């Protein structure tokens, strides 16, 4: 593995021809969730099946949560976690403060790999867990060219009005295909909202692989197997 900086974000590179993200294989970019360390998803590159030579890129979110009493934790934007844990209702049409800055940072990473590394969008899968999943779709919906795929792992709807306006038939299509997983007993992000997101994307004509599971806010083995199958399909 290799740690470096791309644009404004610290990233970890893995896989590829040398284990450090080398070579010219397709690229999988995964964004961690709220409150996780920047390298939270890095172990997945050894677990998730992917095409031979696939490179993995794991950006660390720009915001530190040290001041909130969460050592090592990071976030793409700040949220009221206590309210969510108490079952507080979340406005799915709200545009989270900090979303624009987070989107810009991830777009900077993608622009670098496309221009400097010459990886075409058709060879890139962008995804993430929880807050990282929401940010992934928000980025994909606004890109000028579709990605190979988007992986939404236990995500939800944010900026709902904006997303509905950006989804097809308004071009371009955000990705060739979408993988979406969610736990039926998720205590933080309701399963019903994930189903609504699935239906929203499906109604727009997106190729959605839906992977529900009996569990909470997590990444069980079955989801990782499904994600691997998705990566092989869209990046082969």
In short:
This protein is α/β, with parallel strands linked by helices and 236 residues long. The protein is built from six helices and eleven strands.
Cα-atom radius of gyration: 16 Å
Outline the biggest β-sheet.
9 strands, mixed
* H-E order: EEEEEEEHHEHEHEHEH
Secondary-structure-based class equals alpha/beta
Extended strand count = 11
Q: CATH H-level name... which superfamily?
A: Alpha/Beta hydrolase fold, catalytic domain
Structure characterization notes:
The chain is of the alpha/beta class and 236 residues long. It has one domain: Alpha/Beta hydrolase fold, catalytic domain (Rossmann fold), CATH 3.40.50. The protein has six helices and eleven strands. The chain has helices spanning 81-85, 99-115, 131-141, 160-166, 191-203, 221-235; strands at residues 2-6, 9-16, 20-22, 27-31, 55-59, 63-64, 74-75, 124-129, 149-153, 178-183, 208-213. Strands 1, 2, 3, 4, 5, 8, 9, 10 and 11 form a nine-stranded mixed sheet that branches. It has a two-stranded antiparallel ribbon with strand order 6-7. β1 and β2 (9-16) form a beta hairpin. α2 packs across α3 (131-141). The longest helix has 17 residues, at 99-115. The radius of gyration is 16 Å and the shape is globular. The relative contact order is 0.15. The mean pLDDT is 94.
